[in-house]
Input
Amino acid sequence: MTDQVGALTTAAERIDRSVPAADEVGNEVLIDDRRIMRLSGPLFVLFSVLLVPWTVFVALVLPSRQLSSNYDVAWAGFDVFLCAGLGATGYFALRRSRWLPLAAVATATMLVIDAWFDVMTSASGRDLFVAIALAALVEIPLSALCIFLARQGQLVSDKRLEMVLPTSRARSTRSTSSWATP
Output
């Protein structure tokens, strides 16, 4: 098991090295190269790719009606958006882009919504057990990782701005204080 994790880590790091950092303001000053950031890009791209066959499966097997028409299209469509969110999060993480926080927060939100509706709309028994297991073991932890990535990405973006524009904080404080004093 440890060998497999090591092989996956090595493969993810090779993929990460093959993709250049985004050509954005601040990236020439500071690139977040922590291991979690290096591995999250390939990981989210993989999740996005894995979601494609799942979306096709959902579109084919869900009933067309479930107290509403187009039930199957609604779920498959949602999974398409989730797939795009996972892919965007992976892409922006790979590129160390300043857009990572936005993509990660949107993806985290969609994952929580997906978990909620999967659990709430599942029939009792085996379907409900599978929905709860997927929510607890995949969707909620992945959402938490997205929130972590968003927070870390925002902290790095803030630090980049401080490095590129070191006087911006002083200007911001002065302009804020001028509002307070007539």
In short: Helices lie at 2-18, 35-61, 71-94, 100-121, 126-164, 168-180. The chain has one domain: 2-18+31-176.
